[in-house]
Amino acid sequence: MMEATTTIDLGTCPMPNSTDNVATEAQEHIETPEERYERLLRRARTEDLSEISGIGCLYQSGVDRLGRPVVVFCGKWFPASNVNLDKALLYLIHLLDPIVRGDYVIAYFHTLTSTNNYPSLQWLREVYSILPYKYKKNLKAFYIVHPTFWTKMMTWWFTTFMAPAIKAKVHSLPGVEHLYSAISKEQLEIPAYITEYDMATNGLHYFQPITQNTSS
Q: Sign (positive/negative) of CA torsion 82, 86, 87, 93?
């Protein structure tokens, strides 16, 4: 004798679509650029960044002749090929966030760098997109000291197609002494290898700076 089977009427209620739920949740959690920067800033203030700070490639060195903070970046000491670039970005934010609330300048020393020191364009583009407007607006000058043909080409390409807002602020200088028009020697702390290379390449006292203040 066969047992009667019991059927359950599920009705016409549609089953939830898990794909739709995931898409909806993803939309709800999309960060704005401001939220993303604030999240990274919180990480920069709490995480251990001694791995990057100990390299010594990025630091503040006094002020220029107009009283604006000077940020120094030594390309030779940045091991782009074997450093944690996420940590590097966090350290950049940690150092610069309080500085960029007002006017500031950057002095980048390309002295004796190699391909191991060059971060990818994709990473540079990502960093530029993450940093808020105050970084670009309050940057008053970006000095590139001891540029090479590669540096000049990459600078032209980057400022033309990716960062036109800072193009007029970039200045390529063949030697350290050219900086002294804008930054007094006493305010500029740089590694010995830079000054030694500069003297070997350009000689002694090759440039007489104009010391009066200039407008930004």
A: positive
Assess contact for 80 and 52: CB atoms under 8 A: no
116-151 per-position pLDDT tens digit: 999 988 899 899 999 999 999 999 999 999 999 989
pTM exceeds 0.90: no
The per-residue DSSP string of 128-159 comes to HHHS-HHHHHSEEEEEEES--HHHHHHHHHHH
- CATH for the stretch 57-202: 3.40.525.10
List phi, psi (to 5°) of 206. -85, -10
DSSP string, 160-190: HHT-GGGGGGEEEESSGGGGGGTS-GGG---
Alpha helices in the chain (DSSP H): 18-28, 33-46, 50-53, 85-96, 121-130, 133-137, 149-161, 192-202
| Cα distance between residue 86 and residue 180, in whole Å | 34
In this structure, what DSSP letter does residue 30 have? P
